[in-house]
User: What shape does this take?
Amino acid sequence: MLYIIVAILIFGLLIAVHEFGHFFTAKLFGVKVNEFSIGMGPALWKRKRGETLYSLRLLPIGGFCAMEGEDEDSGDPRAFGNAAGWKKVIVLSAGAAMNFLAGFLMILALYSQSSGFYQPVIAGFLEEPDVSGCGLQPGDVVLSVDGHRVYFYDNLSMLLSRAGDTVDWIVEREGERVKVPGTYIPLRAVENEEGQTVYLRGLTIQAKVQPATAGNVLKYSWYGALDFVRMVWMSLGDLVSGAVGLREMSGPVGIVTMMGDVGASAPTTRAAAYNILYLSALVAVNLAVMNLLPLPALDGGRIFFLAVNGLLYAVFRRKIDARYEGYVHMAGLALLMGLSLAVTFSDVGKLLGR
Assistant: This one.
């Protein structure tokens, strides 16, 4: 139960951090903020300082930054709708930026405890399937597969599992970057000594250790954040293509449950903290990417409308009426709430074993 409570607080904190990004940049650019709240639901505490009401609310599942003229026309010269376009873009992007920064700092905290980081190195070739003539050489450090950067040792198996029979490589060979394009390395079924069927690419891979110097900790922490971004994009691609369905998606209930499970199943409190922090970093980066998608009601959707209005004004000296944009965002919010409910019901069903 303790880990469930911790997970709920972390999830709420990540949303509050997102809203703080909007709040900070709005204040920085002189945009009027009517209320900044941590938490949702009934207010437990309120205090007004200057023009802004600060509040702490009952449910630790988020927060909000209510800016003047954010969703309607306002005659106030300091309203969000009357700010310069570039300021609006920064204010809208700041929430996602704060989530990404939070994820990066969590990864940095985790990796600062590492003794080293591992890169995949081609060690040799299997007899079956024989791909010794593919152009790769033992000792090659794998940098890229089919245009996707290999940040860590574990990336290689994941990228190869998604690749076709023909693979483009970039490797480091004797200190130089070498392209090895169009290598035919098919995925073949092979029976191992235990009689089990395994799928091989004909390569044996070893790990090259990079020492955990201060520079490498920073570099690989950045790589870890970018790796999470790629993971989110690949998951979205799988969802759009139909490779995964609604059942595989998780909302707040599923995320909190997962955090609680990894915490409770860890052998030590230290391991539990590590696992929960790792998942929290993934969720933080996930929130950053999702909020910048050009969908109605999301920050990315608002930025998209800013771009469209800028183009329309430059060409026709006209903009989309704010009311109509509001209708689109309201419809988008309704659809997102419907999807959120569907995912929540799915999460509860999985929790109940259905």
User: Anything to note?
Assistant: The chain is about 50% helix and 25% strand.
